[in-house]
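mind reviewing both lines:
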Amino acid sequence: MADNTTSDLRSVAVLGTGIMGAAMARNLLRAGLDVRVWNRTRARAEPLADEGARVAGSPAEAVDGADAVLTMLLDGPAVLDAMRQAAPGLAPGTLWLQMSTVGPAALEPLVRLAAEQDLRLVDAPVLGTKAPAEKGELTVLAAGPRELRDRAERVFGVVGSRTQWVGEDAASGAGSRLKIVVNNWVLTVIAGTGETLALSKGLGVDPREFLAAVAGGPLDMPYLRMKSELILSGDLAPSFTVSAGRKDAGLITDAAEGAGVRSDLALAVAERFRRAEEQGHGGEDGAAAYYASFDG
C-alpha cells in the first residue's frame, strides 16, 4: 500500500489538461515533480511533453506508479469515467486530489469509487481562472483528513497561493459546497456586468461613463473592470468559458433546489449562459454571456 501519511511526494498524474489542468501541470513540472498527463483529446496534452511531462495514452497508464492523482476535468461524470478507466493502474492508498468543479451531488459517486479502490480522497475544487492558474495563484478549497494534508499541500502549494481547509472528511462535500456558493457569486457578477453594459448600449450610454460613475466607490470591483474590458475590447479569449459557466450554473440551481433554496437569480443566469452558448459563444470567455441580451 502506498504511504500517504508523510510529505514525501514525487510524482503526480494530472487527468485533464484543459485551460486549468495544463497550467497546473506546468507549475508542478517547474517545481521538479515527475508529472504524467492524460487528456481525452491527446493533442491537448502533447504540448506538455516539451516541458518534461510524460503524456499517457490512457488514465491507467498515467496513474501507474504515481504518488498522487489530480483530476481537473469538466464535470463529475467526466471525473468518474476517467477514474474508472484509471482503476487498473491505481495502487491502494494513492492520494486522489479531486480539484474539478463537480458539485455536491456528483461528488457522492466519486467518494464511493475512492472507497472501492482504497484511495485517499481530498475534495479540493479551486477558485481562479487561467491567469491565476498559470501563476500558481489559485485558492484551494479543501476537505480531507489531517493526516493527508502535508502530502496534499505539496501539490496545493505549487498550484495555489492559499489553501482554505474547510473540513476533515472529503465525503462531507464541504469543499464542493463552498465552491458552488462562491461560483454563484462569480456568475452573478459576470451576468450582471454583461447585462449592465448591454443596457448602456441599448440606452445610448457610453459604458465607460458607467464605469467612471462607480469608480473607486463601493459599487466598483476588479472583476467588474476585468470582464467589462473583455466585452468592450471584443477580446473574448477564454479564461473561463461560457460553456463552463452554463455547466456551473446548472450545478448551482440543482444544489439550491436540493437544499430547498429558491435561486431566482441563478436560474436567470443559467438561462443567459444557455442562450449565449446557443448563439455560438460557448468557447469564448464567460463575459460573452453579454450577447445573450441581444437576439441572434
In short: The longest helix spans residues 174-202. The radius of gyration is 20 Å.
